[in-house]
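Table 4 source record.
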Amino acid sequence: MPDDTITLALGGDVRLDAFATAIGRLKNLLDALTREVASGARIDWVISALDVSSALTTVRGDVSKPEFLPRVYRVVSAYEEVGEALHAGQLPPFSEAVTVEALAITSVLDDHVDQVRFETALKEWIITSPVSVMETTPLSQPTFAPVAYGAVEGRVQTLTSRDTLRFTLYDTLNDRAVSCYMAEDAVETMRDVWGRVAVVEGMVTRDPSSGRPLSVRGIREVRVIPSGTPGGYRDAMGSVPRDGGPRAEDVIRLLRDA
């Protein structure tokens, strides 16, 4: 099912000025795409998720009339085309106004910002080098983010729902935001999961350079990890010898020399 959200994420040690530039250009890009592929519709892009650790921003297209919603989908689809073209080192197949804003987003890539990610509910495109009008050369073998079935553990945050249920998972290993997408009819399943640690299983897209998870789609299961009970630490009493017991280094030495 089409989705009405788009996400822009910056990777690396992101400075405030780079983030401000990217968000300002994102607004201009969406305005230009709206004029080009959704003429006549007023679309207000509302922030639905803002995750600091990954400099990740998700916005949702809001329209005053339901009949304008398909035009939001057109903008989302066009945003995907922009990301795909930039990923391949090519100019977006749209007007100059769109191209200028799209290239300006990639201009924040420098020694601090090492990647820009264009993401929707269906796919994402990672750009690691600025794209210039004068130096645009198609890449013969662009690097694609690997996708495979797997599981990611983390804490569930920023749960939003419209056409697609989206939530952000802060993965336990990296403490970075992972975008998770599942069917809208699963909202009841997620109602009591917000703020809790869970394991999410589905098709995991990973960063091609670091291997950390970026998104999970086609989610099969969300399994909550039970938290410890108050005073549960007392159950460990007696597991370690108290006074008079052998020292840890002595035990290790005995096992090594056995």
